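Feature request, filed as a ticket because there's no other form

It would be nice if the structure record came with a short human-readable summary line next to the tokens. Right now we just get the raw output. Example of a typical job, pasted below so the devs can see what we mean:
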Amino acid sequence: MKKLALCLSVALASLLGANAFAQTTGAGQDKAATGGGATAEQKATAKSARKEEGKQTAKSSMAGDDRPKSAAGAKMSAADRKAAKAKRKTAGAAAAKAKKESSGTN
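Raw output as currently delivered:
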């Protein structure tokens, strides 16, 4: 019985003792007074300043600007590409016709 009472008293003392060391407001440590907030004019001024800053940031740098430019470019003129395409088309048609003739009929 004495052990039970001793255990309960220690547990109760630890629960109540925690409140004794809790942080409280002392002299000169009052909560900060809430501000009245910004006026509509101050909000508008701040918004326009942020908007201008955003415009400057958007104009000054874009994602991927620091990457080097590709050296690839048009190596053939449009006429050359068209002529090469026609040549491949006729060669492909001739190959398909030759395969069809060599296979015979079923």
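Something like this underneath would help us a lot:
The mean pLDDT is 83.
Helices lie at 2-20, 40-60, 78-103.
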